Amino acid sequence: MKLLDVKVGQLSTWLAMRDFTPSGIVGAFRRGYDRYYNKYINVRKGGLGGISMVLAGYVVLSYIWSYSHLKHDRRRKYH
Predict the structure, then answer these.
(1) Nearest-CA neighbor of 3 among 32, 39, 23?
(2) C-alpha to C-alpha distance for 23 and 30, rounded to whole angstroms
(3) Nearest 5°: phi and psi at 59?
(4) Three-state SS across 26-79?
């Protein structure tokens, strides 16, 4: 059953049925990657949609990783 099909009251039982072993977590990431790849990258009429989503994610993560450095430089006076 997909997470979107689960009701709020059934959430605890749905979580109990998940496989939280390292191989289960790796399998979940693999399935997610395969779904993304087949939906956006491996298509007949390819576009820039999937690649631009990956690029946008990279830009957001880079900004989050360097935020403390940017925040420190923001208060510095340049003269």
Answers:
(1) 32
(2) 10
(3) -65, -45
(4) HHHHHHHHHHHHHHHHCCCCCCCHHHHHHHHHHHHHHHHHCHHHHHHHHCCCCC
The CA distance from 1 to 59, in Å, is 33
Q: Are 38 and 31 within 8 A, CB to CB?
A: no
* CA pair distance 67, 58, nearest whole angstrom: 14
Query: What is the residue whose two structure tokens read 């993560």?
Result: 61
Q: What tens digit of pLDDT does each residue of 26-78 get? A: 999 999 999 988 887 777 776 777 788 889 999 999 888 887 776 666 666 66
Considering the chain, what is the average pLDDT of its residues?
Answer: 83
Rounding to the nearest 10 degrees, give the CA dihedral for residues 11, 15, 17, 23: 150
